[in-house]
Amino acid sequence: MKRLAIFASGNGTNFQAIVDAMKKGELQAEVALVVCDRPGAKVVERAEKEQIPSFVFSPKDYATKAEFEEKILHQLQEKQIDLIALAGYMRLIGPTLLHAYEGKIVNIHPSLLPAFPGKDAIGQAYRAGVKVTGVTIHYVDEGMDTGPIIAQKALEIADGESLESIEERIHQIEHAFYPKVLQQLLQQM
Ligand code: GAR
């Protein structure tokens, strides 16, 4: 069984969707670690409830990114992690982790990249008035939402649709799409 680490900073609904898919046997992997850069984030509570170990840290306690990524790397190696899935981890990955897990870090982003990278992608798409947006799963490189695209799913925005409605539909897509793509990636490994 391949071993997954999920990196998240906030609510963790994608983490939950991945764990739920795993429990249903739709994702043949073990979520063996959660890494969170925000103590008190809801995802930490979710991990505890699922009895999944978490490594929670405050970046401000470290002088450099390399320092906290060394700590993360130690955890990943100890837990023998095969693949890292970023799920709302709002921080760039540095060379320490990129080199150690080359081609083995993926991210989900709530837009059709390369459109609307960065924060509040759904809001950005809404304000731009686009008629089609969606979800992208891609490999992670040193940039912000820039690595090679693995899969995308489009969503048509209805005339006059509210931001809340678009957000809800994007999240629904994410929760089904991420576990499915992770399963495909793990099968190829
Ligand atoms: C998700 O919509 C994810 O695509 C987005 O953060 C949200 C996390 O939600 N990620 C990015 O914007 C990455 N640039 P969650 O904590 O409920 O899974």
From TrEMBL:
<comment type="function">
    <text>Catalyzes the transfer of a formyl group from 10-formyltetrahydrofolate to 5-phospho-ribosyl-glycinamide (GAR), producing 5-phospho-ribosyl-N-formylglycinamide (FGAR) and tetrahydrofolate.</text>
</comment>
<dbReference type="Pfam" id="PF00551">
    <property type="entry name" value="Formyl_trans_N"/>
</dbReference>
<protein>
    <recommendedName>
        <fullName>Phosphoribosylglycinamide formyltransferase</fullName>
        <ecNumber>2.1.2.2</ecNumber>
    </recommendedName>
</protein>
<comment type="similarity">
    <text>Belongs to the GART family.</text>
</comment>
<keyword id="KW-0658">Purine biosynthesis</keyword>
<feature type="site" description="Raises pKa of active site His">
    <location>
        <position position="145"/>
    </location>
</feature>
<keyword id="KW-0808">Transferase</keyword>
<dbReference type="InterPro" id="IPR001555">
    <property type="entry name" value="GART_AS"/>
</dbReference>
<feature type="binding site">
    <location>
        <position position="65"/>
    </location>
    <ligand>
        <name>(6R)-10-formyltetrahydrofolate</name>
    </ligand>
</feature>
<feature type="binding site">
    <location>
        <begin position="90"/>
        <end position="93"/>
    </location>
    <ligand>
        <name>(6R)-10-formyltetrahydrofolate</name>
    </ligand>
</feature>
<dbReference type="InterPro" id="IPR002376">
    <property type="entry name" value="Formyl_transf_N"/>
</dbReference>
<dbReference type="InterPro" id="IPR004607">
    <property type="entry name" value="GART"/>
</dbReference>
<feature type="active site" description="Proton donor">
    <location>
        <position position="109"/>
    </location>
</feature>
<dbReference type="GO" id="GO:0006189">
    <property type="term" value="P:'de novo' IMP biosynthetic process"/>
</dbReference>
<feature type="binding site">
    <location>
        <begin position="12"/>
        <end position="14"/>
    </location>
    <ligand>
        <name>N(1)-(5-phospho-beta-D-ribosyl)glycinamide</name>
    </ligand>
</feature>
<comment type="pathway">
    <text>Purine metabolism; IMP biosynthesis via de novo pathway; N(2)-formyl-N(1)-(5-phospho-D-ribosyl)glycinamide from N(1)-(5-phospho-D-ribosyl)glycinamide (10-formyl THF route): step 1/1.</text>
</comment>
<dbReference type="InterPro" id="IPR036477">
    <property type="entry name" value="Formyl_transf_N_sf"/>
</dbReference>
<feature type="binding site">
    <location>
        <position position="107"/>
    </location>
    <ligand>
        <name>(6R)-10-formyltetrahydrofolate</name>
    </ligand>
</feature>
<dbReference type="GO" id="GO:0005829">
    <property type="term" value="C:cytosol"/>
</dbReference>
<dbReference type="GO" id="GO:0004644">
    <property type="term" value="F:phosphoribosylglycinamide formyltransferase activity"/>
</dbReference>
<feature type="domain" description="Formyl transferase N-terminal">
    <location>
        <begin position="2"/>
        <end position="182"/>
    </location>
</feature>
